[in-house]
Specification:
The protein has about 400 residues and is α/β, with parallel strands linked by helices. Helix content is about 40%, strand content about 30%. Strands 7-6-15-16-17-14-18-21 form an eight-stranded mixed beta sheet, sandwiched between helices. Bound molecules: adenosine-5-diphosphoribose and P-hydroxybenzoic acid.
Length: about 400
């Protein structure tokens, strides 16, 4: 058995765990990350790619913002498509802010590189990860690495191990409340090395279902169509995907879509989920381990970033100022922001998708709300200020 000690044991090397690790390193707080997958596997997961200014600011604070500033694309608005027309929501005019299009994969890559440069420990391919003792003074993370049992003792555990992780599952059921909504459809996504159809993202409400035209760069596009939960990815040929996407877009946009072979194609279910509280003794949950939003509005990565921003702040106060106030406020501060993002993501999902049970009345209401949204400066501002990110 190998034994090691650190101040903060971080479980999970997704964006939440890696960003927390980078923020703590900037403040000379010793941390070890334990991840069950390989680094290559973590990097191969394709996720969203829209960063709020708050997230870019945290990357700056973590010392990993350079490539994001060079290669990220500044977007001053989005377009909404419905009823055959396109309507722009001008973030800059309505809020003075913008978002940055930069893939989660790139964020993860930059954080991994910065960890490697700083010689910081990440134990990839850790098997049978368990956490113990977080209700007392001496939490421990145990796992097996290359056949050797590892015992990592620490002051705090950061549960950054995503929705299916073991940290939230290790909390006794009576100590945690969960809130959940599952949506009756999924998103079929395709990544392709073709130029995006428009400079900005298009969110489309169509009678055949929702569609989204997104992008990763000037030469790489990410497109989605709402699909049935019964659909299998292999039933969807590239041609079938492109045809379905174009059917859901206004004619002039459909004609302008550049198609090409998919480099990734996957189906994701849509879910809203919150666990309360986000702290249990010396265990702090952050990111997808504590909450899930449906992807409409791209809040998942941004919420994970603000969670670990608050957590890093609390830990810095604890170690450098001897104050536990930030840690004590962690759960409440996060949850107040989380629930606002949950509300926005649920609202934007409800507005843009076809719900089997909504019927003709439901779809008329959607049309009326969309018309109101683009016609009213107040309604447009409400969308814009949530999309660019509410203030901390
Ligand atoms: N032990 C160690 N690591 C684990 C365990 C475990 N038992 N279970 C899961 N993990 C790892 C996963 O392999 C993954 O790399 O934890 C990591 C969690 O990363 P994410 O799922 O990416 O979650 P998070 O870092 O919170 O990032 C949130 O990801 O899902 C998107 O929309 C979400 O963009 C948001 C972001
Ligand atoms: C994406 O590019 O993957 C993306 C963008 C915006 C969203 C969701 C996903 O709302």
């Amino acid at each position: 058995m190998a034994h090691r000690r650190t101040k903060v044991a971080i479980v999970g090397a997704g964006p939440a765990g890696l960003l927390l690790g980078a923020l703590l390193a900037r403040h000379n707080i010793d941390a070890v990350i334990v991840e069950q997958r390989s680094a290559e596997y973590v990097l191969s997961r394709i996720r969203a790619g829209v960063l709020e200014q708050t997230t870019v600011d945290l990357l700056r604070e973590a010392g990993v913002v350079d490539r994001c500033l060079q290669e990220g694309l500044t977007h001053d608005g989005i377009e909404l498509s419905f009823d055959g027309g396109l309507h722009r929501i001008d973030f800059r005019a309505l809020t003075g802010k913008h978002v940055t299009v930069y893939g989660q994969t790139e964020v993860t890559h930059d954080l991994m590189q910065s960890r490697a440069r700083g010689n910081l420990t990440t134990d990839y391919e850790a098997e049978d990860v368990r956490i113990e003792g977080f209700n007392g003074e001496h939490p421990v993370v145990r796992y097996v690495k290359s056949g050797v049992v590892q015992e990592l003792t620490c002051d705090f555990i950061a549960g950054c191990d995503g929705y299916h992780g073991i940290c939230r599952a290790s909390v006794p059921p009576e100590a945690i409340s969960t809130f959940e909504k599952v949506y009756p459809f999924g998103w079929l996504g395709v990544l392709a090395d073709v130029p995006p159809v428009r400079h900005e993202l298009i969110y489309a409400n169509h009678e055949r279902g929702f569609a989204l035209c997104s992008q990763r760069s000037k030469t790489r596009s990410r497109y989605y169509v709402q699909c049935s939960l019964d659909d299998q990815v292999d039933q969807w040929s590239d041609d079938a995907f492109w045809d379905e996407l174009r059917r859901r877009l206004p004619a002039e946009i459909a004609e302008a879509v550049t198609t090409g072979p998919s480099i990734e194609k996957s189906i994701a279910p849509l879910r809203s989920f919150v666990a309360e509280p986000m702290r249990f003794g010396r265990l702090f949950l952050a990111g997808d381990a504590a909450h899930i939003v449906p992807p409409t509005g791209a809040k998942g990565l941004n919420l994970a970033a603000t969670d670990v921003g608050y957590l890093a702040q609390g830990l810095v106060e604890y170690y450098h100022e001897g104050s536990a106030a930030g840690l004590d406020q962690y759960s409440a501060r996060c949850l107040s922001r989380v629930w606002k993002a949950e509300r926005f993501s649920w609202w934007f999902t409800s507005l843009m998708h076809r719900f089997p049970e909504a019927g003709a009345f439901g779809s008329r209401l959607q049309q009326a709300e969309l018309a109101y949204l683009v016609g009213s400066r107040s309604a447009s501002s409400a969308l814009a200020e949530n999309y660019v990110g509410l203030p901390l």
